[in-house]
């Protein structure tokens, strides 16, 4: 499940992963949406391959949808916390998103990935790689 402020690029990130291309049109997610991806995972130890079916949930970042989206945290086994490298507030709000998922997720120890998005806009970055790494380390 992708979490983060509105406009950080959660939908674009998931679209790129599932469809293999970038959609330049910005449309704010209303409530919750999902995408699917099937892939084959090869175990690095045994070399055995296994099919994996991913359901990737895309959440609205606006405050007014929080009560709706937190209901979907229940059965989620992994979270992608997304912030915009060109938006300081989206980075600062990651702590709030983390608290929210810890409060509402039923999975005892979900996998959590921190993603700094819009890496291509290097001239506009306000969050350094060092700060992002430090935040990831502190969040666990």
From TrEMBL:
The keyword Magnesium does not apply. The lineage of its organism: Eukaryota, Metazoa, Ecdysozoa, Arthropoda, Crustacea. This is Uncharacterized protein. GO terms for molecular function: GTP binding; GTPase activity. Coiled coil: none annotated. NCBIfam families: small_GTP. It comes from Hyalella azteca. Keywords: GTP-binding, Nucleotide-binding. InterPro entries: P-loop_NTPase, Rab, Small_GTP-bd, Small_GTPase. It comes from the Eukaryota. Pfam families: Ras (PF00071). Transmembrane segments: none annotated. SMART domains: RAB, RAS, RHO. The keyword Chloroplast does not apply.
